[in-house]
Amino acid sequence: MNPILPQLKPIPIKNRSSIHYIEKGNVDVIDGAFVVVDKNGIRTHIPVGGLSCIMLEPGTTVSHEAVKLASRVGCLLIWIGDAGVRLYASGQPGGARADRLLYQAKLALDDGARLRVVRKMYEMRFKERFPERRSVEQLRGIEAIRVKLLYTQLARRYGVKWTYRDYHGKWGAGDLPNTCISSATACLYGVTEAAILAAGYAPAVGFIHTGKPQSFVYDIADIFKFDTVVPLAFRIAARKPKNPEAEVRWACRDVFRQASILRRIIPTIEEVLSAGGLPFPKKPVESVDLAIPNKEGIGDVGHRG
Predict the structure, then answer these.
(1) Would you say the pTM of this structure is higher than 0.85?
(2) For the domain that residue 33 is a member of, what is the CATH number?
């Protein structure tokens, strides 16, 4: 008689570890396990079901089976450039639900709803209400001044020489503070995109940022950026480390855990979008179901679906 095994179900995104980097090796599924095999044939097991995001650097190759397993358990794979600054491609774990994606698009296309969402994002970010009767473009201008001041204040606090935020498009071309900030924000963007996809929304459909594949990622990540990774980047830059990218990554992993970032991102998305004031649409009959069925309802915002 075959033993009765428990039904498979994904680990809620809020209960997962945030991020994992793979720099070199062949990523594959061997004997049912998600592993990285180095040039000497040594296997390193990766708990793919307990991670929200795996970033793959240029020294990696990935098998079809590995991509399929990551998708089934809801772990986002992101193909990145050196130090995680450039994003070349990403997967979509579990299959997004059409109702949430349509809801997001409806809010973005309604001028009034979009403005209400943008105002809510700025209120959560700066902890104050912005002036009434301002357009999205005017709010962007106010934000730019605030952000410039925040960078200056943080640089002064940590004793870092600072001119302005700049990234030349080529890794290593910027100064140390900008390098640390770029590396730190790349970590935050990866985790945020994993959460957005886990919740069934589209990374490209933004409200403040538009026209880029990660516009909504930037919108949501900016709410957390100056409370988490930017101060961390300045603190590390002040020490002038030999390997700033590695130190930033390790520190980001710790600060994500301490700040419970994965528990906060999806509820923040729901709160921000609800400010648009439009009713949530009913689930279309043709919606794509989860890769791993889940008997629980969708009331727990930490679950995919």
Answers:
(1) no
(2) 3.100.10.20
